[in-house]
Amino acid sequence: MSFKNRNIFATLPRTQRGMPLVLGGDPKGKNILYANGNSIIIRDIENPAVADVYTEHSTQTTVAKYSPSGFYIASADVSGKVRIWDTTQKEHLLKNEFQPFVGEVKDLAWSFDNQRIIVVGEGKERFGHVIMAETGTSVGEIAGHSKLINSCDFRPCRPFRIITGSEDNSVQIYEGPPFKFKHTLTDHSRFVQSVRYSPNGELFATAGFDGKLFLYNAKEYTQVGEVGTPAHNGGIYGVSWSPDNTKLLTASGDKTCKLWDVATMSLISEFTFGKEVLDQQVSCLWQGNYLLSVSLSGFINYLDVNNSSKPLRIIKGHNKSITSLGLSADKNTLYTGSHDGYVTFWDVATGDNDRVEGPGHGNQVQDMASGADSLYTCGIDDTVRAIDLATNRYSALAVKTDSQPKGIAVAESNILVIAGYSDITVMDQGQKKTCMPVEYEPNCVSAHPMEADVAVGGHKDHKVHIYLLNGYTLSHKTSLNEHRGAITDVAYSPDGSFLAACDANRKVILYRALTYELAHNLDWCFHTARVNSISWTPDSQHLATGSLDTGIIIWSVEEPNKHINIKSKEHPQSQITRLTFLDNNTLVSTGQDSNIKIWEITYK
């Protein structure tokens, strides 16, 4: 048995209100780089469904930049570590790892000769440092700022120069190597958020929370002028130059991006977004012919120079951990729900996606299950809602549950069974029919595909409880006592022959449905941490389990002593949250890293 990755539907950038996001660009203009969690995402601009994920940082990543040669990427994290790794090989072999200071890295930049890197941020002893990329040796102190440094840049030509922008409202220039403080600019009245040299090195731009944008002569450090009066009504989070040095793109918290003519310092175009807080623009990047911006929501906008009111394209998805997973009846559309309450639907073949619209959950989506024409979801907001599969919009259905729902299943005749924190609710056509109190804190639920049996996993008592659903009434049939940990998921096989259950004590147990005898005597306990999710193949011959240990195991029903253990190859450093099979040989996995991966499984 073997496996290979077919697709990665990548996470969006992780954003934070009031904080700038730094995007990295491929020197060839093909890819963009951004950080989310422990991952650095490399994403194709023309085809965003093509992505690669680097996951070797042990703490949360903050920024990544290509070397001017394009052969290496330097990425940094909140601990102050900088990793330099190869871009030409799929394995992304590590070249070097350095720690210029202890503390969060906010920005970094390469010198044009690929030999030096400046790293800035919130260090405990210093706010910035310049190192050699090959050895990590010091080539200059970034001294003079009294508060953390948000942004930095290397002049792209000789003589070497460095500029930095800080929360002490100043911009400083350093000459070298070795680099030493030369000059301070104090035109900004609030935090300086972005500083960038023009591609030819003749000018540099500085932008701050005061909404102001200034241009300076890169040789004499004199101000050329202020762009706009001010440039934006809100803080400016990002500045990016056009490749020909003639234009500037800015992104602002006033929910706009603006395109400026450098020669006249006049406005060419204003790109307007919505009126919500999540429409604030926290970053921008000019890559070849593409003008990109990132909203506070994490959406990546492709700006249209010819139509400032509507982007050419918006890349949507998730930037918070994925907590639930569903599938349309034709298995062509995936549905994913996240920690922040949003549900996204994905075309399985292309990766194209959009967000489900309408009045959804205000908090984490706990579980989802497909009915005849709707996808039913439950959330921490204590509601059950329905998504119309024809329109991919939330319907008017919104039923309040008596306790926080943990799992949802669709039984025969489109009847819903909801496992709540302290009860089990039966719903039909948007109305609660019965609500049975229980004391074992249900975690999950599954309905037999043909019979009246319903399995509910208990958190407190470590038992799987089997009920018979007669009309809208649940009656207790039996309890399964083989588990030694909280039941985390239960799933009947599609043909109704088996029930699989997994628990927090690493165990997966297979029962024969209806009689609930053990299907075999083997110990399926190969995970090394809590098992989170179960999914069956359509032919009921194999099942997959995903775990807190970051691994997935494919189990065989006919040969229970055989399995595929592909631990740490799916979502490195991220637990597996949900699984579903598209067909007998294609598995979808989601993780706390917000990524969706599609795997091709071969059994022989």
Task: Describe the structure concisely for a colleague.
By secondary structure, the chain is mainly β.
At the third CATH level, what is the topology name of the largest domain? Methylamine Dehydrogenase, Chain H
Approximate helicity band: under 10%
Q: What do the pLDDT scores average to?
A: 95
Please identify which CATH superfamily of the largest domain we are dealing with: YVTN repeat-like/Quinoprotein amine dehydrogenase
Please state the structural category. Answer: mainly beta
Distance between the termini: 5 Å
Keywords: Repeat, WD repeat
Family: Belongs to the WD repeat AIP1 family.
Pfam families: WD40
Protein name: Actin-interacting protein 1-like isoform X1
Give your account of this protein's structure.
Pfam families: WD40. InterPro entries: WD40/YVTN_repeat-like_dom_sf, WD40_PAC1, WD40_repeat_CS, WD40_repeat_dom_sf, WD40_rpt. WD repeats lie at residues 54-95, 185-226, 229-270, 315-356, 480-521, 527-565, 583-604. This is Actin-interacting protein 1-like isoform X1. This protein is mostly beta strands and 604 residues long. It folds into two domains: 7-242, 7 Propeller (Methylamine Dehydrogenase, Chain H); 322-602, 7 Propeller (Methylamine Dehydrogenase, Chain H). It has no helices and 55 strands. It is elongated and about 85 Å long. It starts with a strand and ends with a strand. The relative contact order is 0.08. The mean pLDDT is 95.
